[in-house]
């Protein structure tokens, strides 16, 4: 009976030593270094033929509708024709599902805007992540873990700016 207990204790001891000897080093995971960059898209129009310019504005709205619904836009006008077209564009965006609170209409006379009758602007945010290093044989787990998964997560975000504490 005593020999059986000693053998059992010896077996458990050997099992613990063997299993702990095979344990792999796991490095603590650090957060990813990313940059969230605002990209401002600006389309400016000089109205020569109201109907033709209206078609161009509506085409740009249709091409970028998913971003406009999510982020909103700013319509800046300088002339009376520009104001009329801005009102039409805002109404068109509302009819396509853009929230009224996300559409900003402004009149201006700043030097940068004097050349154009109407300007359509929206800001989209892009993420830039660092390049991941490859694992090497015999050094697995010593480098950065989860780099590819973190990069894919940040790249797939629709609103990466909402993950940050403050956006200026």
Radius of gyration from CA coordinates: 30 Å
Largest sheet, described in full? 4 strands, mixed
Structural class: alpha+beta
Annotation field: number of helices: 5
Total strand count, please?
Answer: 4
Low-pLDDT parts are: none
Distance between the termini: 76 Å
Q: In one word, what is the shape?
A: rod-shaped
Given this structure, which CATH class of the domain at 39-125 is correct?
Alpha Beta
In CATH, the homologous superfamily of the domain at 39-125 goes by the name OmpA-like domain
Mean pLDDT: 80
Per the CATH scheme, the topology name of the domain at 39-125 is: 60s Ribosomal Protein L30, Chain: A
What share of residues is helical?
Answer: 25-40%
- Which CATH architecture of the domain at 39-125? 2-Layer Sandwich
Widest beta sheet: strand line-up: 1-4-2-3
| SSE string, helices as H and strands as E | HEHHEHEEH
Description:
Strands 1-4-2-3 form a 4-stranded mixed beta sheet. The protein has helices at residues 2-21, 50-63, 65-71, 80-95, 147-156; strands at 34-45, 73-77, 103-107, 118-129. α2 (50-63) runs parallel beside α4 (80-95). The protein is rod-shaped and about 100 Å long. The chain has 168 residues and is of the alpha+beta class. It has a domain at 39-125: OmpA-like domain (60s Ribosomal Protein L30, Chain: A).
